[in-house]
Specification:
Distance between the termini: 28 Å
Structural class: alpha+beta
Strand content: 15-25%
Number of strands: 8
Strand order of the largest sheet: 1-2-3-4
Largest sheet: 4 strands, antiparallel
């Protein structure tokens, strides 16, 4: 999911693990832990030169169970052995800075304030630190599994991507209540029962909403499948995913032998779903099917893609799992990738969402975003 949600979840995990011992610092370290797996978007630039492998690297090994175990052990070793000394010298340096101000204050106002370096007597154990880092890191890929992108939870032993498709990558109803309770908890002492209650209320509400999205997906899938059957669309497989920022408006995609049928459904709709047919056109790059690059793209898109020829040796691969958007009066895929063929080798141009959203005469990226959000809001209401 989005970075803010992962930070909030990581902070809550830190608080649960060590909040009673180190207070708000536990939230800080947990928030950092919740961010670590997504650092793969930077790591991939150091490993790969081509855009296709970079795209495939995200939500790979750094989102796996093994990575969570190993990284939490390494961080626990550091925080148990080296960090106490680092922390001591940082606190000592801060102490002397404060002492300098106090010295000036005493001289000016004729006071006799004395400062002492605080000494920690209840420094967390290795187990405490490991639990904080494991919880905050491991819950990141677990949360990602509920989205449509796909998470390689079992890497490097398997490249299978877990994707339950029941919540959007950005959903304020999951994040904002969670964030509010966590912020409120920060203002209470680390030993306060109110603080503990607020954190668990945030976890409980977010978990309840997640459970709602799971049951909602079962309901929405049933509606889509009934509509496909009633409209005599014989499909081989089917998937659905919610649109951004909500769990009310969904896109469903059904695959046939040579095409995809896509439909948009709001739980407030009263009319049958209207499906749009998109030709696969996979034959455009058929002779490159066995290349490593095309195998990666098929794996990355779960096979839910269409092709269109833009010009000689240049093609658009539309990743249609996330649905369609309105552009210049037409329904077009939410995003896609431009592929180039050069001397029998396929390469991909770096994906630029701003260029994608401003196609068709939109004045600016933000204007296009505003227009699409307005359309989603209208459709969510069943209009």
């Amino acid at each position: 999911m989005d970075s803010l949600t992962q930070i909030v979840l990581g902070a809550a995990c830190g608080e649960v693990a060590l909040g009673k011992k180190i207070g708000n610092k536990a939230m800080l370290w947990g928030a950092i832990g919740g961010t670590i797996p997504d650092l793969d978007v930077f790591v991939r630039n150091w490993i790969y030169d081509d855009a296709i492998h970079r795209e495939a690297f995200h939500r790979g090994f750094m989102h796996s169970i093994l990575f969570a175990v190993l990284m939490s052990i390494l961080l626990a070793i550091y925080f148990k052995t080296l960090h106490p000394y680092v922390s001591y010298y940082i606190r000592k340096m801060w102490f002397w800075i404060k002492k300098s101000f106090v010295y000036v204050y005493n001289k000016i106002f004729n006071k006799n304030i004395v400062l002492e370096i605080p000494i920690r007597k209840d420094y967390p154990s290795f187990k405490d630190w490991w639990w904080l880092w494991f919880l905050s890191i491991f819950t990141h890929p677990i949360l990602d599994c509920f989205t449509a992108y796909g998470t390689q939870l079992f890497a490097p032993f398997s490249n299978y991507r877990v994707a339950f498709n029941n919540i959007a990558v950005v959903d304020p109803l999951y994040t904002l209540p969670f964030l509010l309770f966590l912020i409120l908890a920060m203002f209470f002492k680390r030993t306060s029962q109110v603080r503990k209650t607020l954190v668990w209320m945030g976890i409980g509400i977010s978990s309840a909403y997640m459970l709602f999205t799971v049951f909602n997906k079962f309901y929405v899938d049933d509606v889509f499948e009934k509509n496909l059957k009633e409209q005599n669309i014989p499909y081989e497989r089917f998937t659905s995913t919610p649109t951004l920022f909500n769990n009310i408006l969904w896109w469903g995609t059904a695959e046939t032998e040579d095409a995809f049928y896509m439909g948009e459904y709001s739980i407030f709709d009263s009319q049958p779903i209207s499906f749009i047919r998109l030709e696969k056109n996979h034959q455009l790059l058929g002779k490159y099917d066995d290349t490593e690059e095309m195998q990666i793209m098929k794996w990355f898109t779960f096979g839910y893609y269409t092709l269109q020829e833009l010009e000689k040796d240049k093609y658009r691969l539309n990743y249609i799992k996330y649905g369609l958007r309105e552009n210049d009066g037409k329904q077009v895929p939410v995003f896609g990738f431009d592929l180039m063929v050069d001397n029998g080798k396929i390469s991909m141009l770096e994906y630029d969402p701003e260029d994608d959203m401003t196609e068709g005469g939109q004045k600016s990226f933000w204007e296009a975003i505003k227009k699409e959000l307005g359309r989603l809001w209208t459709r969510m209401q069943g209009n």
